[in-house]
Amino acid sequence: MSSIICGIAALVAINSFNHNLVKDVNEQSKSLLGADVVISGNRPVVESLQGMMDSLVGEKSSEVELFSMSFIPKSEETQFVRLKALEGGFPYYGKLSTVPDEAGTQFKTSKTALVEESMMLQYELSVGDSIKLGQATFLIGGTLKNVFGSLGAGASFAPTIYIAKKYLDETELVQPGSMVDYGYYYKVAEDFDTDTWKKKRNERFRNESFRITTMTDQRENLNEAFANLNSFLNLVALVALLLGCIGVASSVMIYVREKMPSIAVFRCLGMKGNHAFLIYFIQIVVLGCIGVVIGAALGSAIQVYLPVVLKDFLPYEVVMDISWRAISQGLGIGLIVSILFALIPLLSIRNVSPLRTLRASFEDGVNKRDFLKWAAYGGIVISIFGFLYSLTGNIKDSTVFTIGLLAAFGILYGVASFVMWAVKKFLPRHWSFIFRQGLSNLYRPNNQTKTLLTSIGLGTVVLATLFIIQGLLLKNVASMDAGNQPNMILYGIEKEQSAQLAEITESHSLPVIAQVPIVTMRLEGWKGRSKADWLTDTARTASRWAINREARVSYRDTLTESEKLVEGSFIGNVEKGDSVFISLAQMYKEALDVELGDELIWNVQGARIKTYVGSIREIEFNSMSTRFFVLFPNGVLEKAPQFEVLVTKSPDVHATASYRSEVVKTFPNISVIDLGSILAALNDILNKVSYIIKFMAGFSILTGFLVLLSSLILSKFQRVKESVLLRTLGASRKQIFTINVVEYALLGSLSSLTGIALALIASFLLAKYMFEIDYSILWSPIILMFVIVTSLTIFIGMLNSREVLNKSPLEVLRKEVG
Amino acid sequence: MQEILEVSNLSKVYKSGSKDLTVLSEINFSLKKGEKISIVGPSGSGKTTLLGLCAGLDKATTGQVFLAGADLKNLSEDEKAAVRNKSVGFIFQNFQLIPTLTALENVMIPLELQGESNITERAESLLSRVGLGDRMGHYPSQLSGGEQQRVSIARAFSNAPEILFADEPTGNLDDDTGGKVENLLFELNEQEGTTLVIVTHDSELAAKTDRIIRLRGGKIIEDSRL
């Protein structure tokens, strides 16, 4: 019953939580967007769109967002931050939550900054301290408790700082080539139909690389995100429930087996098979109902804890109420599935022969074509499908999930059966009795070895895969630091700062591995047609991102070690008046769907340059260096407005800190990214993601241990009997203890090894096809999982075996005590 | 002849709620090596309790038991187990075979517990002597009651015990099978020169031993040599 309680509790907790999460998504989406319409892009709005934007009548705010280094004078430290410069009354819905409260409005009129709480805590900052952003120093006006969505992509690991837009120029952080995002926020009249407004103009904005977001989009995004989260959580809960039900089925099987003599007596006295079945069926249904009700109550209690686990993924605070719908769903599916699972062993009661009363070893007639048994199997599949359909509302998804779940269980059960068969078949006969006896306990009557291998194995698969992938991702990033590979990149360097920066670098005994010029440009046309013409062509094969992106281009006369020429020939220098042959990265070439010799026209900050595809390069992404989709030869871009990137390698964190500090003090506009910070940020993100998966996989392992406990309790009689017999025949306490430890160690290690073997396959496939990273076996998480699962199994097993160890040998004669 | 078992002033009192229940009282007897005795008496007379105390499976309330030269009173549970493993064999009414082990493996248990190696040959020979040479790889559930008791006999002799305790060895068998098992038990006992203690209701079986100790109400009422 404990395993079904666990499964139902997981299901009800997750369902209740989900209902609470989505119940006021409409209300919340408004305060999350902060405005009715948001227009965003990576350049200031172009004139051709301004007229259309003016048709949005109402209040208007604008924001400039960029990433930059900040300098903290108090501690002389530097931090990479996301700077948001705001102008206007945004947010119109919800509010910037700050401490003190008034700082949220005061910063718009004074030269103060709002600094995100995490950064305030990290550098022990307080209101009134100062912070330098570029060339300007701001007083910290307040602590920022919430952040409105990012305009650009990713990099959410940099803490956010808000300032008023009117002070942005003083920072001198916006330079040609800086990566800046621009946002325009509108609050319109209540009866204004923003969706229709967007529909009419969306294509034009998209063609100019601007994005329009309305409340409807925000709501859809939220709903989609929650639906994904909810599907994932429900799937895990369903797995926990199914594991619980397998536990129920095997417990009922043992129970029925123990009751066989009594059933045979009933049959002998004239009871019909169906009536005998009903006696135990009613008993199991009553027990199932009690288990399901306790599970539902426990689940409702657990859901209070879920927002704490998931807080990093939730955009707003969720108010938890009791969800009767979730409880009734959990009760319904739990009762149906657990009864169906219990039915499989229960149905065999109908076939118990009265002959058992005479001969205990009499085998009952097994009807392989038992229709009712197959109907129960069918019922289980239909229930799982029905439950998934009620979650997704999609027949295809539900079918795929159902088949996937059955396949996952089938594989685990198959592997478990194979492992058991192999161990039994190939166990060396010359091993000592203690080991053989411990092992043969795995086949003892009423063993639940396969159930345990499946449930504990499943939890191990999920956890081990998670640990391996997390380790591989970190290892791949960390390996970038190997040998002479660079581990620090400085960008946003103006041409006149270049020489002095190189001097500073060398004065810190750091090598200048590369100083790379970068020129920003946009594609204006290719293959003889203009960009606008291509964009209206519905049959085009080029991707929108490849057409619209602002290209950051470099020029040089050689290829680097991480580049490999795959097509054409690389031309490194061009004389004035010659045709310009450029080199494209393979990925960009495919996205743009161009071939060698195709013409590309670029707009380099006003000047048009005609080029031809001269070569295609493949770029390795295994080192921290600069990579360019488009590479020009020397002799074309030297006079264009440009900035530089400097690549270096720092031997340790102290050298990085002192170098970074001097660079930011001398040139506040230069940003420094080092591999250590990237690793720390990546680790942080991975930890957040894996925490929730670990939490859910825990349910599976917990169910496994509950099955183990119930198996031990159910087989206690048999265990006591055997151990007492061995004591009678002269076994010492130590020998009995060792037999038990060997049994649980084998059970734990077989479960974890089965899980680990499958996790190795799963992580290999994930690494190769999803993350596309090098695969290598990471022993530390594997060994850790093995040790933890095995030790826990031994611990739980031994905890329950004290009685077996302490029984007096006289028990063997008890039945005959005269 | 040397004495293998010596029982003096042995009593066993069980607590039954607030009352004391005396199961055995002032039992005295001794056995010489190679002797064959039977303990008989009606149900509840204390036969099995006496057997348990003699074999060191239970603790006496008062009195002493010397088994194979060891004073059981002064031994720990593990030390008593070691004495049983080295010097004692058991046969039970309900066979007490381990269901997950084959007939051969069951016979090997006492020697395995001693940590002996090269024991398969002895176990195989014993199984052949009890007529199960062709059933060695069978599990208990695949054997009849008589066959299971024969495996149990082979197991009892596997560690070449000095003394063998048999608790109603034919109690669960039909007359015919019971008779065969009895013959086998005495035959092997003769060949191995083991001391034999049989607890039984069966007066015919008791008559085959050298001496009968009759119990009633926890006391010896008769100790006669045949």
What does this protein structure show overall?
The complex is a heterodimer of chains A (818) and B (226). Chain A is 53% helix and 17% strand. In chain A, strands 2-3-8-5-7-6 form a six-stranded mixed barrel. Chain A has a six-stranded mixed barrel with strand order 12-14-19-16-18-17. Chain A contains 26 helices and 21 strands. The mean pLDDT of chain A is 80. Chain A is of the alpha+beta class and 818 residues long. Helix content of chain B is 35%, strand content 31%. The two termini of chain B are 18 Å apart. Chain B is of the alpha/beta class. Chain B has seven helices and ten strands. The relative contact order of chain B is 0.19. The chains are: A alpha+beta (818), B alpha/beta (226). Chain A binds chain B through residues 361, 432-433, 436-437, 440-441, 443-445, 722, 725-735, 808-810, 812-813, 815-818, and chain B through 41, 43-49, 51-52, 55, 57-58, 77-78, 81-86, 88, 90, 92-94, 96, 98-101, 105, 108-110, 112-115, 141, 155, 159, 167-168, 199.
Uncertain regions of chain A: pLDDT < 50 for 5+ in a row? none
Class from helix and strand fractions of chain B = alpha/beta
Low-confidence stretches of chain B: none
Biggest sheet of chain A, in brief? Answer: 6 strands, mixed, barrel
Radius of gyration of chain B: 17 Å
How far from one another are the termini of chain A? 39 Å
Our Rg estimate of chain A from Cα atoms comes to 34 Å
